[in-house]
Amino acid sequence: AIGGNPEASRLAGINVERTRVYIFLIQGAVTALAGVILASRITSGQPNAAEGFELNVISACVLGGVSLLGGRATISGVVIGVLIMGTVENVMNLMNIDAFYQYLVRGAILLAAVLLDQLKNRGSRD
């Protein structure tokens, strides 16, 4: 809502401070919900329980169309990225693929998604 230039957003009539507060409120609520879901999944509350999920989250978001250079993204695209990454992870678990190779596959998916995003952005800049 604010973008990379808060001054331009303010000049466009957006209340930047109120929007930032709302964004942080929503972020906190979603983070709390994710923490409750994770704690119920592992049946305990550990502060480092989600350690190592960063690659999965970034891969799912980039795969869903979120650009690392900024711009517009859609929630439906992120949901599709999460579903794709979840399916890939589930298939690898069902095939009993070693954890080391699972990280390689996730990294390759992230690399491919970033490269496709770069190609898409290069085409729009030229």
Automatic annotation (TrEMBL):
Keyword annotations: Cell membrane, Membrane, Transmembrane, Transmembrane helix
GO cellular component, one term: plasma membrane
Keyword rRNA processing: no
GO molecular function list: transmembrane transporter activity
Membrane topology: Multi-pass membrane protein
Localization per record: Cell membrane
Chain ranges passing through the membrane: 21-43, 55-88
InterPro entries documented for this protein: ABC_transp_permease
Principal place of residence: membrane
Protein name: L-arabinose ABC transporter permease AraH
